Amino acid sequence: MGRNSRSDLLFIGLIIVPLVLLVGILIYLPAVDSFYTSFTNENLRIRIPPKIIGFKNYIKLLSGSEFWNVTLRTIAVVVLTLPLELMISLGIALLLTEVFPGRALVRTLVLLPWMLPPIVNGFLWGWVLNGEYGALNGLLYQFGWIDEYITWLKNPDTQILWVVVVQTWTRFAFPTIIILAGLQSIPTDLLDSAKVDGASVFQRFRHITLPLLIPSFTVALTIEFIASFQIFDVIWTLTSGGSSGGAINPFTKTLMLYNYEIVFRDLRIGQGAALSFLILIISLGVAIVFVKRLYNQSIQ
Amino acid sequence: MLEMKMHFRKMVLGIFMVMFLPLGAFAEKITFLTPSWGVPPNKELLEAFQKESGITVEIQSVQNKDLFSRIQVAAATEQAAADVIFLTQEAPSNLVAVGMMRSLNDLASKDPLESDLLGQEFWNIDGEQYGVPVYAQLVMMDYNKKRLADAGFNSPPGTWDELRKASYQIKSKGIDKHPIAMKASDWSWYLMALSMGDPMFDGDLEPVFANPGSKAREAMKMLLEFFREELISPEIVAGTVNQHSIFWSGVGTFHQGWQGSIRVGNNADKSKQAPNVAYMVLPEVGSTWSFPAAIGIARYSKNLDASWKFIRWYTGIENQKAIYNAFGLYPSRASVADDLNRQGAVDGYPEILAQAAKVNELPRYTLWWGPFTAKVSEEVLTAVQTNADADATIDKIADHWNELKSEYE
């Protein structure tokens, strides 16, 4: 082994070992500890040592109506957000593959909502949707499309729809980048030869572009599923605070907010840990399905 | 190339070393965790304190609802989220009762607190002092005199029914679209129920508010009607504004305020209601609840002496005056309040005194008050948004109370 190789090994050891230790200490150790905690009755409001109670936390969660209500609401957010987000991303990515003046500027502008913290987006949309002085009302009124200002966030049903809109706005740039990268990796000679063979724009898109984009779609879908499933900041800033003060708005309470409520408001650490693992199992299950079904099939 | 490689390695190692450098090199630096209204408003006063004491105060201003979670997360690992903590209305249950604050007895025995510092007993549990009062808070109502007069009323309403009728009149005459500025939350219901004369809880902490025909049921019914009839702005239900910001923006004739709120309401720089805001003693029996906000030291803080010096400065005369002038928060030191009153700076002093005589405290010190009061807000908001029945809402609230009580008592 040469001097350089030994030096490289030493350097790698110096860098890799602390990183592995950091990941182990900061991620896996707490995860194992949380898993253990999920089988205890740990509650910070009660100053007594926690006891192991088996699966009681899991049973309590799964047998309660709130868990299922919150899970269904979370699924609704995911089901509404993902298609909307991916359609917008695909449209923008297709547009950005075209050559036109100012393309670089448009690409930068597309990234802007993603670069802003979700909390900022939530507050920003809160002001846009304000019923007394919000920009949306102002705009619609100016165009004569509404006769009087509307309180957009008052109704529980519209609250969840606006959450979907803001989440889409916050996140669409990321799948756009992934799909754009996918589009640029499609060999142009394939498209050219199809064109020579007389394939229309739609046929080229349907039979060449779309199948070759499926791996990119799967990656985007998986990551965006996790982001939507674990939505927190947008709801926290858009509909959760304000009138409800220290309480969490029950009509936009999703799994992560429910988890926050159990752990940080009620201080039921054991039950909160159990819920975390239920969230992990659901996320992992769906992600595995996405990857196995879509990604692997498209690669084959 | 080799030189570049070595340079890169040195840079990476340098970054790692900086990451692992021990923190805490600043012995006389303390952190202060507070909601926005606890930030010392007079920067010059704070700088003078820092210069004189040699203590650097790092202020972390957070939303009230995030304050508890920060402290609780840190305390779970036996760390202090900050040295000094601003103690707000739910702190007795969420921080003190769960053992996240430190007793100040030893520090106060070396450097005793002033005798005119009112509200100390509120933060004294089993002989241990956990907080030093900063301001006295009495939940009150204020109103716009001019709008009420324009609607043909010469004095504020004496009953909640009169308040509702006056509100309809104001709305129908087009004087104010949404005459009542109250939240869809726990406080609005407590305020109306206590004011109507409901004791809410008995000596054994039984929820007498749920008794058939109670005033608290009547209060809930009326509160929900206020929302249904849009006497309260739907924007409050949407959650993008609160009762204070909407009132000061010019919407509302009756406003759930506090002892000192007209200081802000009549400040033309901050409020479109100026100069027409006055206090009203709450209708009917007129009871309310009080709350002396305080500051204390986190259980795991290691900077005790510096923290105590800061607390003594923070609750001192000059800073209390600055807080009153900036936020209208009534000083906890009687001498400061008297001084401000002598200077004519305390508006509506007679109404404050009259309201202060009608206080019925809520059991905020119970372990379960924090989750309970959050549930109350949730139920009120649900009822407002789904047009739910008032009695069913009260029954659910009582169930929450009983469930939590049996779990924690």
Description:
The complex is a heterodimer of chains A (300) and B (409). Helices cover 75% and strands 0% of the residues of chain A. Chain A is an all-alpha fold. Chain A has a single domain (56-299), classed as MetI-like fold. The longest helix of chain A has 35 residues, at 3-37. Chain A starts with a helix and ends with a helix. The relative contact order of chain A is 0.13. The mean pLDDT of chain A is 88. Chain B has helices at residues 2-19, 43-53, 64-76, 91-96, 105-110, 145-150, 160-172, 186-196, 215-228, 234-238, 243-248, 261-265, 304-314, 317-327, 334-342, 349-356, 369-386, 390-408; strands at 29-34, 56-61, 84-87, 124-125, 128-129, 132-144, 180-181, 254-258, 277-280, 290-297. In chain B, strands 1, 2, 3, 6, 7, 8, 9 and 10 form an eight-stranded mixed sheet that branches. Chain B has a two-stranded antiparallel ribbon with strand order 4-5. Chain B is of the alpha/beta class and 409 residues long. Chain B has two domains: 22-137 and 290-356, D-Maltodextrin-Binding Protein, domain 2 (3-Layer(aba) Sandwich); 139-289 and 360-408, Periplasmic binding protein-like II (D-Maltodextrin-Binding Protein, domain 2, 3-Layer(aba) Sandwich), CATH 3.40.190. The relative contact order of chain B is 0.16. Chain B is globular, with a radius of gyration of 24 Å. In chain B, helix 17 runs antiparallel to helix 18. In chain B, strand 1 (29-34), helix 2 (43-53) and strand 2 form a beta-alpha-beta unit. Chain B has 18 helices and ten strands. Chains A and B meet through helix 1 and helix 12 of A and helix 1, helix 3, helix 10 and helix 17 of B.
